[in-house]
């Protein structure tokens, strides 16, 4: 029979996180048997690049698209058209605004992610002190959502002794992130922690802390892949960081897309979708579902996972 | 001193000793010397190969859809070609798109109707072009230098206004223009581009304005000495480029239904690449709109084909870069080096 | 040292006296072996035959004049000899050995050097570096440029040339004439066996040419062979021993200059008899005719001051001065090219504002600039597009429909000027220097001006064409055109002009009527003095106003 | 006998090599002053910027920009431009990182040498196309910029090489200190001296000025432009290669997009430093100051707590201002025919 063709569109190629998600997708395809996965993404993380790709996927008449969007709104028109042409569109990781997709699979609950990062920071610095956020670009959708959640978490009484002093953007460029990190360290002498919800950022901040000989005084935490962060955990600049399992995420997203193609899922509120070995996921009012809380890595386990993703 | 004229003065103007033909004698192989001919062959080749290898390539709907990927860039390629013919360049075009789109977003929030948004976009682009042009012509600065600076400035202003926010909620009509069709088959941005291309082609190849643009690109000093208001033409071209970038911003904003400061990032180099592939010499004075149109189509079909084959975008940049190098290097290699010297 | 050089520039009538020639001729008698000999040289440019089977010899210590019409192939030959072009066929023997020059460096090493027709200058570099560029003396370890020695040697060169130039000045601050001397110094610095000068006098004024002759004399005495290219016969007879004539890329004749008259030479060059230059009778316009153009108190902050003059229809107003006197700048201002200039311009008795060339053209002015390459020709546009550029408004908006008219305009003018080209779509870059000048001239005649400003209009034009140009100007003037003729050639100014304005250091020094003008008086005024003969002591344009 | 056509010559025998305008009218001192004023202004707002540590970091941070700006200056002097530096940097950086990952036992010198050699090869390819095939530099380097960047992806398979994969001494070298200054600063200083010597005191360097002033004339005086161009782009490539290693090691990470868009920063540094895009004009001091100027801005903005959203706009504004100031300095210097006011005319007259 014809194979079900599911395209996985990622923010940009050459990103270890998505490469791992691709592994998960392939695992799902193997399990399902009649699925062909097309893994693709633009050169630079731009919405326009993804739009071009979705356009060509429509032309190829793929059955489903699972996409991690560079811009929640910019992709809506094109994915709407894809759905008009009968392509099932799901977003994962970084979502598309409602109306532009059938469902959004959050790697975890945004609230949990925000909370987790604040918790890690609090743990590292003993619950009190100045913290700063070093993000990717000011336009990155999910980073912005998490930053919002972090701010909410900081308002909780248990974090009342922590103060967010700055939010800066490193544009996912190592040199700019590094310079911004140094700038944070300089202009906020009392800074205790830098939270970077992006791999380039957490890397650069870790390096900056080491170079400034502030290991033990300033801690870096945030979201990153074990393989890319192992070095900084070793150096001591990073005590712990978090990430969800991208393999599971890719697996579940692909599995869910298959269910949509086969008509076993419609994307209605409260609907439960079976996603193989991950059990089932439940859609909320916004058509979103979340997998699991992010997993924390530290010196004890990072080397083990560094070999996997 | 020597004697006076020994020639009898003819009553009528003297016939010259030299005959000057109107045109060089036509030779069929001259046709192949034309860049446009090579591009046309390349286009046919690209389409044929794609059609053979990719089952979905020749689907008319797909072809129509594929034009959305390049129409906006192609709109800017037209005035950019004129600029490059005039020995100028504008690196800030994509930043102008961002700023114009932000202006549209602001206007939209203020309740300006769709037609007004178009005007706002074009007006913003025009203003940006005016700034570039004024700096280049009034202060005599090299355009590449000016536009590197203004690129940062324009995009920076967009980011000042928007911060980490985005403008959304554009009216439905904009989406129709951005990715809708005329008569359900003709993609609107593409049709607009074609119309613009015809206007530009007439402007450049038929009118005396166009003739003067070539003159300026050829030798700006001599053009000025010949009564061409060189700076006014330059200024007008920068303004025109800005305005077309504004127009492109209108379509792009409509197509993606939102505005962020990093919209259209990096387009300037793609646009310049297309123009150069179209046979417009970076040294000024040569090039044609036909060539630019063909090159837009070649690039469009090529990237579309590669995308259909799911070849990663970064490989595409290698292909495009190599194509650019090959198209300028191969003719030179074939002609040999005997054309060297002065 | 060199006491025989005329002590007061310009006192002698042209040609300036060349240093005693007979004494030197002895060096180059027939028995000497040739230092350079060419045979069967051929060169093609994309099908155009520039040279075909050219051969001649040059002996040490002789000055060989290379003659030919515009486009005869002289400059191409120079470029072949200096390694810039490679010949398609034929051989070059230097000092008895066959040589092949792959590059200009090769030729230099071989001992051939040239002052090219186009100026070869590096504006941002110092005078000394311009002389030694690519060959700077080195010293020390690591090997580095020995600046002091380079400058000292440059100074020594200028001392030898008896020219006073600061070696550290940047060339962009030099005048045209000064640049030429830098080029000559460069050529001399190479101790070459053969020095080629391709129209070296085109930008030099009268007495600077005298300096050049002296330098050629020095070379000759040192046993250097000189190939001298010029379209001016007075110079050729003053400086050269032998001649070689090219026509249409072919070798025509060679021989002793003493054995041939100017007429015969011209006949060899052109292949027929031609008329002579400077053959215009004074205009017959009475002084009462109202001037078509009046310029009153034109000033510029740095270039010129309080310049006033007037031209009547049917009159030629000459402008004479040394290079750098500011004549071109005045014309630029008049033509709307320098916004800083102040003053009044009246046309037909009404004051007009000339803020741009377009306005000037609209008011009937036309300006043929002196720098053909930079200001005149659009080298990679077709001939006809060059010619119609200033008259486009008169042709129509949609040019495609009027191609015929454009070609007709171009054809009429090109035939009158005897342009040598193969077709009208040919790029101007493919024409020889003189033919390019004709295209520029045609461009301005196409505007059918009422006042034609000619800035060195016959620079680099061969004798036959010069006659054509002069005759043509004469005809136009006879039809009521007013002409301003800026020229550094005394014979040309004196022969053509009805009145002559002499400028010096940005100011009008004196105005001469045709009758008053003598070579001595003009030259003296140009170098800043008032000549006794023109004792009316009419200062600065006063006389111009009736 | 002196000729009296010297009357229009004003610029004469000023002390120093480059005769001409007095010191305060020249661009470089002005720019130096501007940089110092900028540093002080930032210091007023954020005194920590003036601390020794911060200055040290500023120098370290500007080293790579300075090195690339110097090489770019040589290229621009010849009327060229090298848009491929950032891609070249990424490619040679990635290749040396991959090498380090697979052969961690090799000494650091080998990785540096490899990076330089790879950069040199990439640069020579540009140089060959530009010098020997006489193709326009902007087009060639635009093309190679895409190709080189794509190659980074192909070679790395899109994966990162992160600090875990790099040997410790590979990472440590750029920031290791010698006599109180980081290796990066020393390398930057070395590059300044070397390029200064090259540009000022070798035939190679002077030929570049000549080529930029008038390429056709350069051929007429026998300058072998092709070879010169080949090696100029080669040098630019080698410098980018070295910068590639330094970049990757300093930030302890290599991925496809490192230094994306950095070529524009480098060119902007040259332009601010008064290197004329039209060729033939430019000083080592200018390029260095231009690069320093940009580094000061880039380092100061984060420290000054200026809203991140204003940074790009401010950078653009500053570039435009610097360029406009440069242009104003250039205007008004034209030849002068009239004797200057209050100065007697300089007719030297003829010697009898
Ligand atoms: N690069 C070139 N490409 C094509 N044709 C050329 C080129 N250079 C010269 N020619 C042609 O070669 C012929 C000889 O030109 P050349 O410049 O040698 O003449 P010339 O004798 O120096 O004339 P003039 O006195 O006007 O300087 C001309 O017909 C010219 O059109
Ligand atoms: N210092 C200089 N720098 C650049 N260009 C110069 C310089 N001096 C002279 N020139 C060039 O030479 C031309 C002639 O100079 P200028 O206008 O000063 O004198 P002129 O009286 O017109 O001389 P002529 O017409 O005899 O050449 C100018 O138009 C200019 O292009
Ligand atoms: Mg010639
Ligand atoms: Mg002049």
TrEMBL record, chain B:
Signal peptide: none
Transmembrane helix keyword on record: yes
Any one of the GO CC terms: plasma membrane
Keywords from the UniProt entry: Cell inner membrane, Cell membrane, Membrane, Sugar transport, Transmembrane, Transmembrane helix, Transport
Main subcellular location: membrane
InterPro entries for the chain: ABC_transp_permease
Compartments, record wording: Cell membrane
Protein role: Part of the ABC transporter complex LsrABCD involved in autoinducer 2 (AI-2) import. Probably responsible for the translocation of the substrate across the membrane.
Entry protein name: Autoinducer 2 import system permease protein LsrD
Species assigned in the record: Herbaspirillum seropedicae (strain SmR1)
From TrEMBL, chain C:
Membrane topology (UniProt): Peripheral membrane protein
Keywords of the record: ATP-binding, Cell inner membrane, Cell membrane, Membrane, Nucleotide-binding, Repeat, Sugar transport, Translocase, Transport
Residue stretches making up the ABC transporter domain: 36-273, 287-530
InterPro entries found in the cross-reference section: AAA+_ATPase, ABC_carbohydrate_import_ATPase, ABC_transporter-like_ATP-bd, ABC_transporter-like_CS, P-loop_NTPase
Region (Disordered): 1-21
Organism domain of life: Bacteria
Pfam families in the record: ABC_tran
Major subcellular location class: membrane
UniProt key word Iron: no
GO cellular component: plasma membrane
UniProt-listed PROSITE patterns: ABC_TRANSPORTER_1 (PS00211), ABC_TRANSPORTER_2 (PS50893)
CDD domains, per the entry: ABC_Carb_Monos_I (cd03216), ABC_Carb_Monos_II (cd03215)
Chain coiled-coil ranges: none
PANTHER family linked to this entry: CARBOHYDRATE TRANSPORT ATP-BINDING PROTEIN MG119-RELATED, D-ALLOSE IMPORT ATP-BINDING PROTEIN ALSA-RELATED
Protein's name according to its UniProt entry: ABC-type sugar transport system, ATPase component protein
Organism of origin: Herbaspirillum seropedicae (strain SmR1)
Automatic annotation (TrEMBL), chain D:
Signal sequence extent: none
Domain of life: Bacteria
InterPro entries: ABC_transp_permease
Compartment annotation: Cell membrane
Chief location of this protein within or outside the cell: membrane
Membrane topology: Multi-pass membrane protein
Alphabetically ordered keywords of this record: Cell inner membrane, Cell membrane, Membrane, Sugar transport, Transmembrane, Transmembrane helix, Transport
GO molecular function list: transmembrane transporter activity
TM spans (from-to): 29-50, 62-81, 101-125, 137-161, 181-199, 230-252, 258-277, 284-303, 309-327
A Gene Ontology term for the protein's cellular component: plasma membrane
Pfam families, A to Z: BPD_transp_2
Keyword NAD: no
Subunit structure: The complex is composed of two ATP-binding proteins (LsrA), two transmembrane proteins (LsrC and LsrD) and a solute-binding protein (LsrB).
Function: Part of the ABC transporter complex LsrABCD involved in autoinducer 2 (AI-2) import. Probably responsible for the translocation of the substrate across the membrane.
Name of this protein: Autoinducer 2 import system permease protein LsrC
Originating organism: Herbaspirillum seropedicae (strain SmR1)
């Amino acid at each position: 029979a014809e194979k079900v063709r599911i395209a996985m569109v990622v923010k940009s190629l050459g990103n270890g996180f998505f490469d791992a998600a691709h592994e998960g997708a392939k695992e799902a395809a193997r399990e399902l048997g009649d699925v062909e996965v097309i893994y693709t993404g633009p050169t630079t993380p731009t919405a326009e690049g993804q739009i071009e790709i979705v356009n060509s996927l429509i032309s190829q008449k793929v059955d489903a698209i699972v996409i991690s969007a560079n811009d929640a709104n910019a992709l809506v028109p094109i994915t709407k058209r894809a759905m008009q042409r009968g392509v099932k569109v799901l977003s994962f990781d970084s979502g598309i605004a409602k109306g532009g997709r059938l469902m959004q699979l959050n790697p975890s609950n945004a609230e949990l992610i925000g909370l987790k990062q604040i918790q890690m920071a609090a743990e590292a610095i003993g619950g009190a002190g100045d913290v700063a956020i070093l993000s990717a670009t000011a336009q990155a959708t999910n980073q912005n959502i998490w930053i919002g959640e972090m701010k909410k978490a900081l308002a909780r009484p248990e974090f009342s002794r922590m103060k967010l002093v700055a939010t800066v953007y490193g544009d996912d460029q190592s040199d700019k992130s590094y310079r911004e990190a140094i700038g944070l360290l300089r202009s906020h002498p009392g800074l205790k922690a830098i939270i970077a919800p992006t791999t380039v950022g957490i890397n650069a901040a870790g390096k900056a802390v080491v170079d400034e000989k502030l290991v033990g005084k300033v801690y870096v935490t945030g979201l990153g892949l074990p393989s890319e962060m192992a070095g900084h955990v070793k150096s001591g600049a990073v005590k712990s960081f978090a990430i969800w399992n991208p393999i599971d995420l890719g697996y579940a997203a692909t599995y869910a897309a298959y269910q949509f193609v086969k008509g076993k899922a419609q994307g209605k509120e409260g609907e439960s979708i079976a996603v193989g070995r991950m059990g089932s996921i439940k859609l909320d009012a916004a058509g979103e579902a979340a997998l699991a809380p992010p997993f924390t890595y530290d010196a004890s386990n990072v080397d083990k996972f560094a070999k996997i993703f | 001193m020597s004697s006076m004229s020994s020639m009898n003065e003819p009553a009528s103007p003297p016939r010259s000793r030299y005959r000057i033909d109107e045109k060089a004698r036509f030779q069929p192989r001259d046709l192949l010397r034309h860049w446009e001919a090579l591009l046309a062959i390349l286009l046919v080749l690209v389409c044929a190969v794609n059609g053979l290898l990719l089952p979905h390539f020749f689907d008319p709907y797909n072809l129509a859809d594929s034009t959305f990927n390049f129409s906006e860039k192609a709109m800017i390629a037209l005035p950019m070609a004129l600029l490059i013919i005039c020995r100028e360049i504008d690196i800030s075009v994509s930043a102008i798109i961002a700023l114009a789109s932000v202006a549209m977003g602001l206007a939209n929030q203020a309740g300006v109707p769709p037609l007004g948004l178009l005007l706002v976009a074009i007006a913003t682009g025009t203003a940006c072009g005016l700034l570039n042009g004024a700096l280049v012509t009034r202060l005599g600065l090299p355009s590449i230098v000016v536009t590197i600076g203004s690129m940062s400035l324009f995009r920076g202003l967009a980011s000042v206004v928007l911060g980490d926010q985005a403008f959304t909620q554009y009216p439905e009509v904009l989406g129709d223009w951005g990715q809708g069709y005329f008569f359900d088959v003709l993609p609107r941005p593409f049709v607009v581009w074609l119309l613009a291309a015809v206007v530009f082609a007439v402007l450049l190849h038929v009118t005396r304005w166009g003739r003067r643009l070539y003159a300026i690109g050829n030798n700006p000093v001599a053009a000025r000495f010949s009564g061409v208001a060189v700076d006014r033409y330059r200024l007008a071209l920068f303004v025109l480029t800005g305005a077309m970038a504004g127009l492109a911003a209108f379509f792009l904003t409509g197509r993606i239904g939102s505005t962020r400061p990093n919209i259209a990032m990096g387009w300037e180099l793609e646009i310049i690449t297309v123009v150069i592939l179209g046979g417009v010499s970076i040294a000024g004075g040569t090039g044609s709109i036909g060539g630019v149109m063909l090159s837009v189509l070649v690039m469009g079909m090529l990237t579309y084909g590669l995308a259909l084959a799911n070849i990663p975008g970064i490989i595409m940049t290698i292909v495009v870069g190599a194509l650019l190098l090959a198209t300028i290097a191969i003719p030179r290699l074939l002609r040999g080096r005997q054309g060297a010297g002065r | 040292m060199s006491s025989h050089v005329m002590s007061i520039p310009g006192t002698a009538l042209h040609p300036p006296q060349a240093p005693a020639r007979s004494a030197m001729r002895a060096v180059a008698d027939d028995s000497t072996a040739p230092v350079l000999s060419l045979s069967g040289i051929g060169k093609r440019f994309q099908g155009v035959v520039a040279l075909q089977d050219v051969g001649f010899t040059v002996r040490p210590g002789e000055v060989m004049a290379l003659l030919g019409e515009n486009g005869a192939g002289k400059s191409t030959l120079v470029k072949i000899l200096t390694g810039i072009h490679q010949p398609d066929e034929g051989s070059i023997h230097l000092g008895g050995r066959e040589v092949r020059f792959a590059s200009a460096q090769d030729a230099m090493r071989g001992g051939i050097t040239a002052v090219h027709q186009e100026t070869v200058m590096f504006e941002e570099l110092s005078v000394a570096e311009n002389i030694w560029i690519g060959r700077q003396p080195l010293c020390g370890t690591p090997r580095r440029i020995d600046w002091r020695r380079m400058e000292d040697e440059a100074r020594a060169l200028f001392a030898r040339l008896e020219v006073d130039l600061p070696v550290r000045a940047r060339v962009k601050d030099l005048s045209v004439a000064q640049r030429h001397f830098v080029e000559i110094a460069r050529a001399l610095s190479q101790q070459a066996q053969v020095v080629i000068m391709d129209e070296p006098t085109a930008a030099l004024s009268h007495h600077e040419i005298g300096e050049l002759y002296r330098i050629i004399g020095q070379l000759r005495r040192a046993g250097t062979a000189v190939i001298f290219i010029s379209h001016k016969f007075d110079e050729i007879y003053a400086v050269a021993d032998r001649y070689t004539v090219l026509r249409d890329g072919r070798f025509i004749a060679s021989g002793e200059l003493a054995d041939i008259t100017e007429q015969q030479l011209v006949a060899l060059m052109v292949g027929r008899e031609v008329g002579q230059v400077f053959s215009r009778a004074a205009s017959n316009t009475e002084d009462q005719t109202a001037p078509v153009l009046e310029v009153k108190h034109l000033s510029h902050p740095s270039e010129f001051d309080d310049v006033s003059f007037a031209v009547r229809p049917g009159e030629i107003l000459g402008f004479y001065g040394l290079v750098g006197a500011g004549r071109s700048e005045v014309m630029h201002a008049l033509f709307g090219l320098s916004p800083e200039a102040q003053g009044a311009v009246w046309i037909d008795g009404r004051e007009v504002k000339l803020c741009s060339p377009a306005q000037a053209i609209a008011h009937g002015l036309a300006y043929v600039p002196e720098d053909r390459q930079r200001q005149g020709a659009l080298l990679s546009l077709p001939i006809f597009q060059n010619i119609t550029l200033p008259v486009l408004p008169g042709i129509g908006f949609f040019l495609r429909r009027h191609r015929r008219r454009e070609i007709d305009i171009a054809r009429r003018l090109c035939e009158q000027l005897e342009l040598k080209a193969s077709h009208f779509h040919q790029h101007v870059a493919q024409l020889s220097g003189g033919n390019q000048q004709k295209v520029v001239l045609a461009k301005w005649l196409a505007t059918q001006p009422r006042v034609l400003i000619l800035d060195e209009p016959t620079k680099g034009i061969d004798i036959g064409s010069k006659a054509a140009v002069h005759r043509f100007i004469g005809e136009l003037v006879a039809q009521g055109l007013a002409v301003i003729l800026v020229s550094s050639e005394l014979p040309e100014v004196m022969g053509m002009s009805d009145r002559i304005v002499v400028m010096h250091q940005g100011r009008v020094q004196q105005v001469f009527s045709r009758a008053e003008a003598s070579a001595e008086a003009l030259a003296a005024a140009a170098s800043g003095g008032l000549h006794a003969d023109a004792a009316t002591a009419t200062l600065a344009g006063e006389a111009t106003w009736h | 006998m002196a000729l009296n056509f010297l009357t229009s010559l004003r610029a004469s025998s000023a002390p120093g090599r480059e005769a001409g305008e007095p010191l305060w009218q020249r661009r470089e001192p002005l720019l130096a002053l501007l940089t110092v004023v900028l540093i002080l202004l930032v210091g007023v707002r954020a005194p920590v910027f003036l601390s020794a540590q911060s200055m040290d970091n500023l120098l370290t941070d500007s080293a790579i920009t300075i090195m690339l700006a110097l090489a770019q200056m040589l290229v621009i002097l010849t009327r060229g431009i090298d848009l491929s530096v950032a891609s070249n940097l990424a490619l040679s950086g990635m290749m040396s990182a991959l090498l380090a990952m697979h052969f961690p036992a090799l000494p650091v010198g080998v990785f540096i040498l490899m990076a330089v050699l790879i950069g040199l090869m990439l640069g020579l390819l540009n140089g060959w196309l530009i010098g020997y095939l006489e193709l326009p530099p902007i087009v060639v380097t635009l093309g190679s910029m895409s190709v080189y960047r794509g190659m980074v992806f192909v070679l790395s398979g899109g994966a990162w090489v992160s600090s875990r994969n790099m040997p410790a001494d590979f990472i440590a070298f750029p920031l290791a200190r010698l006599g109180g200054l980081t290796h990066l600063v020393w390398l930057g200083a070395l590059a300044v001296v070397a390029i200064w010597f090259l540009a000022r005191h070798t035939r190679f360097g002077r030929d570049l000025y000549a080529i930029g002033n008038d390429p056709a004339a350069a051929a007429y005086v026998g300058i072998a432009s092709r070879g010169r161009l080949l090696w100029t782009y080669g040098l630019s490539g080698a410098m980018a290669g070295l910068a590639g290693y330094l970049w990757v090691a300093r930030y302890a990470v290599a991925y496809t997009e490192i230094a994306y868009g950095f070529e524009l920063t480098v060119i902007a540094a040259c332009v601010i430093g008064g290197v004329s895009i039209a060729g033939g004009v430019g000083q080592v001091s200018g390029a260095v100051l231009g690069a320093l100027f940009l580094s000061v801005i880039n380092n100061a903005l984060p420290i000054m707590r200026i809203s991140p959203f204003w940074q790009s706009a401010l950078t653009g504004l500053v570039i435009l201002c610097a360029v406009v100031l440069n242009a104003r300095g250039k205007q008004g210097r034209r030849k002068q025919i009239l004797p200057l006011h209050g100065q007697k005319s300089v007719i030297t007259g003829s010697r009898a």
